[in-house]
């Protein structure tokens, strides 16, 4: 779902609100979450999840084209941890999650055409 789809759906579900008002509400919520993360605060929405900023230390990376070492500065990256209620709603109320993950298929080598001899 895109931001514009979210606004359209909220406006349709709340006919007493004008679309520009819904746009302002959605933009304000996103702006406040972003501003809190920029300040280093944590944003917790009960039943939904928590947004926080995790710090990544400076490191030495590699230029994929040349292989040369490149310094990568430390930075903060946004992190979202879903709440219990959100996980339960996604996985179904029957408790479908929580068990072991299904087994993964083994990776197979690509099949190559046989070489022709002339």
Task: Describe it.
This protein has 118 residues and is of the alpha+beta class. It is built from three helices and five strands. The strands form two sheets. It has a three-stranded antiparallel β-sheet with strand order 1-2-5. The model has no long low-confidence stretch (mean pLDDT 86).
Structure keywords:
118 residues; alpha+beta; HU Protein, Chain A; 3-stranded antiparallel sheet; two-stranded antiparallel sheet; 3 helices; DNA recombination; transcription regulation
Q: Topology, please?
A:
Blueprint: H1 3-13, H2 19-39, E1 43-45, E2 49-56, E3 59-62, E4 69-72, E5 75-82, H3 84-91
Antiparallel strand pairs: 1-2, 2-5, 3-4
Binned strand content: 15-25%
State the helix count: 3
CATH domain class name of the largest domain: Few Secondary Structures
**What's the CATH topology label of the largest domain?**
HU Protein, Chain A
Given helix and strand content, the structural type is: alpha+beta
Rg, nearest Å: 23 Å
CATH architecture of the largest domain: Irregular
Strand order in space, largest sheet: 1-2-5
- By DSSP, the count of extended strands is 5
What coarse outline follows from CA principal-axis ratios? elongated
Protein name: Integration host factor subunit beta
Function: This protein is one of the two subunits of integration host factor, a specific DNA-binding protein that functions in genetic recombination as well as in transcriptional and translational control.
Region (Disordered): 87-118
Keywords: DNA recombination, DNA-binding, Transcription, Transcription regulation, Translation regulation
């Amino acid at each position: 779902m895109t931001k514009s789809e979210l606004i359209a759906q909220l406006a349709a579900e709340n006919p007493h609100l004008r679309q520009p008002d819904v746009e302002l509400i959605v933009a304000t919520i996103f702006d406040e979450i972003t501003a809190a993360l920029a300040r280093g605060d944590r944003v917790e929405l009960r039943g939904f999840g928590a947004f926080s900023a995790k710090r990544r230390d400076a490191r030495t990376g590699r230029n994929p084209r040349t292989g040369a070492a490149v310094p990568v500065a430390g930075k903060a990256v946004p992190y979202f941890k879903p709440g219990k209620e959100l996980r339960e709603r996604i996985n179904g109320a029957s408790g479908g999650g929580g068990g072991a993950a299904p087994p993964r298929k083994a990776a197979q080598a690509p099949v190559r055409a046989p070489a022709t001899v002339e």
